[in-house]
Please model this.
Amino acid sequence: MAEARPFAVVTGASSGIGLELARHFAAYGYDLLITAEGGGLDDVAGDLAQPGIVVREVVADLARTDGVERVVAAIAATGKPVDALALNAGLGTGGAFLGIPLAAEQQLIGVNVAAPVHLARQIVPGMVRRGRGRVLFTSSQPGPYGATYHASQAFIRSFARALRAELAGSGVTVTTLLPAPTATGFFGGAGLAAPESLDEPARVAGNAFHALMAGRSQVVTSPARNPLQLAARLRLLSR
Model:
């Protein structure tokens, strides 16, 4: 029955890690609400369709408060409690801070910082009342340039860690995904050259999904062929 199926919300689900996360949820019997700013969600929903699984899509600009509220309203309209919330949407900017237009930085802050806080504040209280729920934040590992981008990711790591501590014993877990550079559209969108060594979105999402289901606090990924890179990034994250 539809009421018995768990329900997951995935932001930034049109491609990359978000799409692969949505595939994992669908494969495990979750109904889904997926959202992204651009088009193509109809195709994604069709790709995710499985017998008995309901996939709803919402096109929304998460840089805008009204876009976030559109997602919140769509979640409420399903009449289903949210069992898993994957806050994966993100924007990047590359280059020196003084060379990036202010409007681009403000849009980045809206999507990367304001939207996850807004959605968490709207959805997590219901999880706490029911005594169960899982929240996944996609952040990133430290790196040079893109000052505002990396600051936004540090905010998410700190916010997720604090929220997890505050929710201890509530039945709601918070997991942070810290992927190494991954083969998505991120680098092109940020105007950056992609590194030579890239992880696969499906592998990253698989690791994140299983960490989320296990209630782990954090999952750090690295291309399977580059364990030294993972060790170096873990040292950075521990500082």
Notes: The chain has one domain: 2-237. The first helix runs from residue 16 to 27. Residues 97 and 147 are 6 Å apart (CA to CA).
